[in-house]
Design a protein that fits this description.
- The structure is a single chain.
- By secondary structure, this protein is of the alpha+beta class.
- Among the domains are: 131 residues, 3-Layer(aba) Sandwich (Rossmann fold), CATH 3.40.50.1390; 108 residues, Hect, E3 ligase catalytic domain fold (Alpha-Beta Complex); 41 residues, no CATH class; 90 residues.
- The protein contains 17 helices and 16 strands.
- The strands form five sheets. Strands 12-13-16-15-14 form a five-stranded antiparallel sheet.
- The longest helix has 48 residues.
- The chain is flat and about 120 Å long.
- The C terminus is likely disordered.
């Protein structure tokens, strides 16, 4: 009976760092072929690898697995020189051995042969596989320690970022120095600080012969190395830190910080949801409630067939109210237009404002007098210091230290005086402008920003508004406003009081809810706004 010839696959592997240590794919192949010849093995598949064996995510090995899957039974054994050629990870290696076994392939290291059919030999296999993993871990610790030591020393041990190149000093220590691209990198930071977009920066750098992706440009603009700093990451019980590097910076720290602030602001804008409750067409959103269910009304726009947007206030809770925003907005403006204040109220406001500004003026003048007095004292002390230095009573170091302290205080006082002088204490123009706005609330409201529109409505109508039967209503208006409005007669309970054609206060009792009405309960006034 003829002896069956086994079919073998040969694997040679060497990583890039191992090549530098003298490992050879050719020597491995030669040893494997000699083994096959001595043992009558037929070589039907052969592959080489130049990837690390820390895992099996290796292109050539994956191609081998695909071949096995499609050609099951055509390979009996996978040969390699030693177990560290197969894997440097214990758990991954055992999992792969099991996978290959299911595909009908046994595994053998010709320099470290093990009969895997004997259970006790698995212990020896574990030792062969664990030793490379331990070696990898130890090497990794040494490398991380060396890199961290370099970072702490202020040196950059990694591949140089754009605008720099790696060099070694006279002590064979790694660092980075500028390249011809450094000036262009500096200009890119300067452009970014003035609001130039990253798309424009990419175009600028491309014209200068620098090709960089948008994501890499974003990382570049956030890299502290360009400002002369080295970032030390957190490790175990050591906190992250940033130190001054030994390399020459391309940009100043102030420019770097300015760019970071701008990038941070842009990121906030970018991450801000597209939806916003701040719409100029819906200034009353947040101040309106549904006339049916008393929930807040929201607002949105509907697009007509011609593409025009039409805004509505509507209730999402019950769907009861849906009113054109323009209708309610104009109604509120007409109400504000009808609000007129008594002359006595205008005079009272004018007196109050004048008194407030008068008090402020007294405080400012008093503060300025005290500041000028302190400035005079500091000048005299500096003169005395000069005399003491000339007489030899103090050293030059003492003189500089005390003079600096006095000079710093002088600068702060002078800044305060300058600020006080900039305060406009002429109140006549401000008073006239304020009183004019008070007498023309509708104009003030129309010209106001969205935020100020909401403040005006909220201050006059502290309770929510609702729209029913083509009329805006609210439970009450600001008491000061109500008392200051032009009226013919005083308020009387259970009588309608006409303040204007647009605003009616009545003695109508509001819905009391679950609380029963008693004879001693005060009658709530309701504002009816037509």
């Amino acid at each position: 009976m003829m002896k069956q010839i086994k079919r073998a696959a040969l694997m040679s592997r060497v990583s890039s760092d191992e090549q530098a240590l003298g490992y050879s794919l050719g020597v491995q192949k030669e040893n494997l072929l000699s083994h096959c010849k001595r043992n009558d093995l037929e070589v039907v598949y052969e592959f080489r690898e130049d990837h690390s064996a820390k895992n099996f995510n290796r292109p050539a090995f994956n191609e081998f697995l695909n071949y096995l899957t499609k050609n099951k039974g055509k390979i009996d054994v996978l040969l390699f020189t030693s177990w560290d050629r197969f894997s440097r990870n214990l758990m991954d290696a055992f999992n792969m051995l099991d996978k290959l076994k299911k595909l009908g392939v046994t595994v053998c290291a010709i320099e470290q042969p093990i009969d895997l059919s004997v259970p006790e030999n698995l212990l020896m296999l574990a030792m062969y596989l664990a030793m490379p993993e331990i070696d990898n871990s130890r090497r990794s610790i040494k490398i991380r320690g060396g890199l961290r030591a370099a970072l702490k020393a202020g040196r950059w041990p990694f591949n140089a970022p754009l605008g720099y190149r790696n060099v070694k000093d006279e002590k064979n220590k790694t660092n980075i120095v500028h390249t011809k691209d450094a000036p262009h990198i500096k200009i890119a930071f300067e452009k970014c600080s003035t609001g130039t977009t990253q798309v424009e920066l990419l175009s600028f750098l491309k014209k200068k012969g620098i090709r960089i992706s948008r994501s890499n440009l974003s990382s570049l603009l956030r890299n502290k190395v360009y400002a002369g700093f080295i970032a030390i990451p957190e490790l175990d019980d050591e906190q992250a830190d940033t130190i001054k590097g030994l390399h020459e910076p391309i940009i100043t720290e102030a420019l770097f910080n300015k760019v970071q602030k701008l990038l941070g602001d842009n990121l906030l804008k970018k991450n801000k949801p597209n939806f916003s409750s701040k719409r100029l067409e819906l200034p009353l959103r947040g101040n309106l409630i549904c006339s049916k269910c008393r929930n807040h009304l929201t607002g949105s726009a509907s697009r007509s067939q011609n593409g025009k947007l039409h805004f509505y206030y509507h209730c999402n809770a019950c769907g009861g109210d849906r009113i054109k925003a323009e209708t309610i907005n104009e109604s509120v403006i007409e109400i504000l237009k009808s609000l007129k204040f008594k002359n006595s109220i205008n005079n009272l406001f004018e007196s109050i404002l004048k008194e407030r500004f008068k008090d402020k003026k007294i405080v400012v003048q008093s503060s300025k007098q005290n500041s000028l007095k302190r400035l005079s004292e500091l000048n005299n002390r500096i003169i005395k210091l000069q005399d003491m230095l000339a007489d030899g009573n103090i050293t030059s170091d003492e003189f500089r230290e005390m003079k600096k302290r006095y000079a710093d205080e002088k600068n702060k006082i002078e800044e305060t005086i300058k600020t006080d002088d900039g305060i406009d204490i002429d109140t006549n123009q401000k008073l006239l402008k304020g009183l004019k706005a008070l007498s023309r609330l509708d104009i003030l409201y129309r010209d106001a920003s969205l935020v100020n529109k909401q403040k005006i409505i909220g201050s006059i109508f502290p309770e929510k508004l609702f729209f029913a039967k083509k009329k805006c209503r609210t439970t009450r208006i600001n008491e000061v406003v109500r008392l200051g409005l032009l009226t013919d007669k005083g308020f009387r309970r259970n009588k309608f009081k006409i303040i204007s054609q647009k605003l009616v206060l009545s003695g109508q009792v509001e819905n009391t809810g679950v609380e029963p009405v008693t004879s001693c309960m005060p009658c709530k006034r309701s504002s009816q706004l037509s």
